Amino acid sequence: MTAIPFWKTTPLAAMSRAQWESLCDGCGRCCLHKLEDIDTGKLFFTSVVCHLFDDQGCRCTHYSERNVLVPDCLVLSPDNLATINFLPNTCAYRLLNEGRDLPDWHPLVSGTTDSVHDAGISVRDKVISETYVHPDDLVNYIELLDASQD
Fold this sequence. Notes:
Elements: H1 6-9, H2 17-22, E1 32-36, E2 43-49, E3 53-54, E4 59-60, H3 66-69, H4 92-97, H5 107-110, H6 115-118, E5 128-129, E6 142-143
Parallel strand pairs: 2-5
Antiparallel strand pairs: 1-2, 2-6, 3-4
């Protein structure tokens, strides 16, 4: 008999820290700089990432200190999840919060961290660090990624 995965039985608010953290698929899309149209409220994702982002590992290089080093880095929690409008359609936190299941390529389902990259979901090799981009030039890096709301 196969055990039912924790994400199907445990509400987000009841997950342990380890369970919560394991939901991150390592796509890196939440680390992309976003621009908002002030007239429409529409979000546009750029191909520019935070200077703390490791492009190959698709992880923050200073994860435990990220919101000290980057004060506007938002820390996801069950309490603020529903109010965050920039999570990609593929994000496990968003999917589970909306009552949906994880896709087959998610590392918790596939059993390998490479599956998110193999599926073309991650930003690996598709981004540039904010270190090399002037903030006024972000508009030149708008990408048509499936990282916005439906």
